[in-house]
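Response to reviewer comment R2.3. The reviewers asked that we include at least one raw input/output pair. We reproduce the pair for Glucoamylase here without editing.
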Amino acid sequence: MIFQSLLAPCSILISLFASANGIPTTPTVNKRAELDAWIASQTSVSYFGILANLGSAGEKAYGASAGTLLASPSTHDPDYFFTWARDSGLVFKALVDEFIRTGNTELQIQINDYISAQAKLQTVSGPSGSLSDGAGLGEPKFNPNNTAYYGVWGRPQRDGPALRATVLIAYGRWLLENNYKSAAADIVWPIVRNDLEYTAQYWNQTGFDLWEETQGASFFTTAVQHRALVEGIKFAGSVGASCANCESQAPQIRCFLQHYWNGKHVVSNTNLTPDPGRTGKDANSILAAVHTFDPEAGCDDAGFQPCSPRMLANHKAVTDSFRAIYPINSGIAQGSAVAVGRYSEDVYFDGNPWYLTTLAAAEQLYSALYQFNKAGSLTITSTSLSFWQAISPSATEGTFPSSSSAFAALTSAMRTYADGYVAVVQKYTPESGSLAEQFNRNTVGGPLSASDLTWSYASFLTMAAARNGFVPASWGAKDATSLPSVCAATSATGTYSPATNTNWPDFPCTPAKLVRVTFNALAKTSVGQNVWVAGSIPELGSWDVGKGGVRLDASRYLEAMPLWFGSKTLEAGTAFEYKYVHWEADGRVIFEGGPNRKYTVPTSCRMGASVEGNWQ
Ligand code: NOJ
Ligand code: NOJ
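Raw output as returned:
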């Protein structure tokens, strides 16, 4: 099971920090052990949170096609019941890395479904255009059944293709290493190829940023585009192809990347029309550092690596920009973690901290720690000095080998500081572990905006992996250092063709013992009524709804689609009969008419299944 593999390392840590009788040895250790325990439980909540939003069997994803990931199940205020290229790419990268680390075959099935869905999505024409000249690939979001979304939107967004290429390359590499060369070459590469061609052709044109608000150039977009082309070159070679446009454009993108640095911090958005006049301090840049982290790259400033003096200075500039503006941050001293939002001028839902940006602030630091330990030293420059002095007041410029006490003190201060960001998220996460998009900036706290944001859960998983020292594979940053002396506004016109092969080989897989079965009942009800499932097995109350029926949820109920949904984890192969029932306020139980419904929990490697039916 997915979550067990993640629980293991955490429980090992807990036992390390606890004495023989289980009582933690010192107060600091105690705090860390508590955080470890919370992270372990929040890790499994996050997995289930992601899978619940994934079509077609996800508990909260009724109506989404197989492999199509919703940004959130929220259908109003805000309506996120769509699939976004960016969110899906980032979330699936987390799942692919987890699959590679654990070999969890249930995850692999979802990954294959996602890739098959992407082959189809690339061919869907919409308001951004079509595949013929690549323009359609800049479309940021689609309906959950993979048709075009025609509403007014900030489009195009040019990070999506690059992020998708990055996930597919990570999985493609696994295929190659495990002797599935034709799946890598014939299924994965044709999709990646379109995305690389798009990136090489359009990187130098303006587009909407990751927050879908400003049109111009965005640091996050440029950084992930550079990464995709660099790893694209190597991946192309490994499947017997090539990417000449990647080779010609990658150095220019790296050149362009430099213009975002103003000497003190990254200016996340440039070339804006209209220019909203912001400071440019934006979690955009922290997310870029996290998603272009390369464990082989060292602390390269020009590559904006997490441990680079530039990005540490930037971390301070960005996080400090939220200290004064959120009441929940007031009174927190310099050098202690705070809640982090998108950017200080944000007004979306009144501009609150976000879970995923606060978690990214932690993740950047854990990734930096990995690098310092790997390098066996840590260097403080005039650029990063103020970052270090905030968390360790006696810090000075210099290079400190890992054998020095300064190294020990600095890295320990950094880890405590990083844990602080996770503790902020813990503090504002409800008991259930549900991660929305935002949490209230005011002292009342509480989740806000989209509920169960898939990306929030993924950012939790990648933070937890980084904290445990699990790092993603290198993407070749170390060798991609070519930097033209003068940047040129180049472009390479691509060629595009539909990826048609989605015939996956039969991968060996572990049969799922337990399957989460989701019941989707379409039942017109009146106010005050509810719908439950009662069935013949004890898990469904043995026909007694009070003894184990499943209460269904009406949060997506519409006249046109009177949906009641809910799920139950059952043993594979279990055969049972069931019915939908109303359990009235006065205690009466009213069974639907007709014959009993019959169902056998499928025996396969899939951990989720769903059934659908009209009230009869
Ligand atoms: C404005 C928000 O700031 C942006 O991030 C969001 O995507 C759109 N509205 C649509 O909800
Ligand atoms: C709004 C965010 O600003 C954007 O980054 C995201 O893609 C969408 N919501 C969907 O989660």
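The first strand starts at residue 83 and ends at 84. The pocket of 1-deoxynojirimycin (ligand 1) is lined by residues 78, 211-213, 348 (CB under 6 Å). Further pairs are available on request from the corresponding author.
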